[in-house]
Amino acid sequence: MNAVLVTGAFGLVGSAVVRQLAADGRDVVATDLDIGAHRKAAAALPSSVQVRYADLTDPAAVDALVEAVRPAAIIHLAAVIPPFIYTRRDLARRVNVDATGYLLAAAPAGTRFVQASSIAVYGSRNPHTVSGLLSADTPTHPADVYGDQKLQAEKLVRDSPLDWVILRLGGVITVDPGAYMKLDNLYFEQLLPIDGRLQTVDVRDVASAFAAATTAPVVGETLLIGGDDSHRQIQGDVAPTMAAAMGLVNGLPTGLPGNPDHDEDWFTTDWMDSSRAQEALGFQHHSWPDMLAETATRAGALRGLLRMVAPLSRTVLRSRAPYHRTGQQFADPWRAIADKWNEPRP
Ligand SMILES: NC(=O)c1ccc[n+]([C@@H]2O[C@H](COP(=O)([O-])OP(=O)(O)OC[C@H]3O[C@@H](n4cnc5c(N)ncnc54)[C@H](O)[C@@H]3O)[C@@H](O)[C@H]2O)c1
Question: I need a surface site. Which of 6, 50, 192, 243 has the fewest CB within 10 A?
């Protein structure tokens, strides 16, 4: 078979990957958990896309899936990610690590296996004390359970005899305003040091990278997937600028800077050297300014409404913000995560 099997196919990245592969005329099999929201999303897919439901933490289900599809390539995206991973770390290990092992074991020799990893594997990045861009050679030193599990999964992939490729993603963002309307995600974003470095990337460009990685001559490579240079951002600018493009001008409260003297109290993002990935996969098509313009266009009539509610939104969100009335001078992201969800350390 020539099929590409996409796991986590109804997630943020998976939905874009499936669309990209279908648009490229590839034979796509989308797989994810069998829940109502996914059944609904499946109904809207192009008729050429096959859907098969499976819980990847069940090795027998994984074997049956791979046996039925006999894919030429597997794009493995299924995962439990922050902030939800902090409340479900055992389930997350079964999905993020164990299920990766089941898929690798089930796939026959010659299968191209494209693994979704994250720059979280590098750990905390204090911009006052570390310099230089992240690269495939930057030492890994996970600071939280997510980076740790992603690194464990990478090791399984590297040790497998399949034709593997690892894509480490930066901050994946989308021009779909609805995607930002989750309160847990907003809270999480607001506890991060506002002066941390973050390289964003349009989810459609991530999808292009995964699609290209199923055939490009990149076997055995670890590639960093970030947007072009316009995506080299400062954490505290990203959400407010995106929100303003949607009409919510000054609608988000401002968080706290990181402590320059505490290397551990920073989040796991930084700017990336994506030049090898871009050379091999040619995936960077959407600049940050283009994304903002498109976000504004898509928000359409909603913009006027959001502009009106922006002052109220700022007041309400500030009263619920992670460091509200703590008197803290600096952000303390891991403590804030532990207080809200659970201990995030590996
Ligand atoms: N979103 C980002 O900014 C980002 C950054 C770096 C890396 N990544 C990686 O990219 C991949 C995709 O991330 P995303 O943002 O689309 O995540 P997502 O949470 O939107 O999607 C993950 C999907 O995995 C599925 N899944 C979870 N448990 C499963 C199970 N037991 N069996 C089958 N499917 C299961 C979920 O139903 C969901 O559809 C992940 O591997 C993630 O670690 C994402």
Answer: 50
Provide mean pLDDT across the span 300-320.
94
Q: Which atom of ligand 1 is nearest to the CA of 171?
A: 3
Number of residues that this document lists for the chain: 346
Nearest Cα neighbor of 185 from 199, 171, 197, 195 is 171
Cβ atoms of residues 247 and 313 within 8 Å: no
Quote the ligand 1 centre to 80 CA distance (angstroms).
6
Query: In angstroms, rounded to a whole number, what is the distance separating the alpha carbons of residues 211 and 24?
Result: 9
pLDDT of amino acid 234: 98
Q: Which listed CATH number (3.40.50.720, 3.40.50.1970, 1.20.120.140, 3.20.10.10) goes with 4-174+201-229? A: 3.40.50.720
Report d(CA 29, CA 82) in Å as an integer: 26
Average pLDDT of the chain?
Answer: 96
pLDDT at 178 over 80: no
Residue 180 pLDDT exceeds 70: no
> What is the CA(309)–ligand 1 centre distance, in A?
32
Answer yes or no: is pLDDT of 182 > 90: no
Does the Cβ of 14 fall within 6 Å of ligand 1? yes
Give distance in angstroms: CA of 35 to centre of ligand 1: 15
Ligand 1 nearest-atom number relative to CA 14: 16
Mean pLDDT value across residues 137-156:
98
Residue of 179 and 134 predicted with greater confidence = 134
Average pLDDT over residues 18-25: 98
Nearest-angstrom CA–CA distance, 344 and 120: 12
SS3 232: strand
CB-ligand 1 contact for 24 (6 Å cutoff):
no
What are the start-end ranges of the H helices in 160-287?
Answer: 183-191, 203-213, 235-245, 275-281
Q: Does ligand 1 come within 6 angstroms of the Cβ of 85?
A: no
Is the CB–ligand 1 distance for residue 58 below 6 Å?
Answer: no
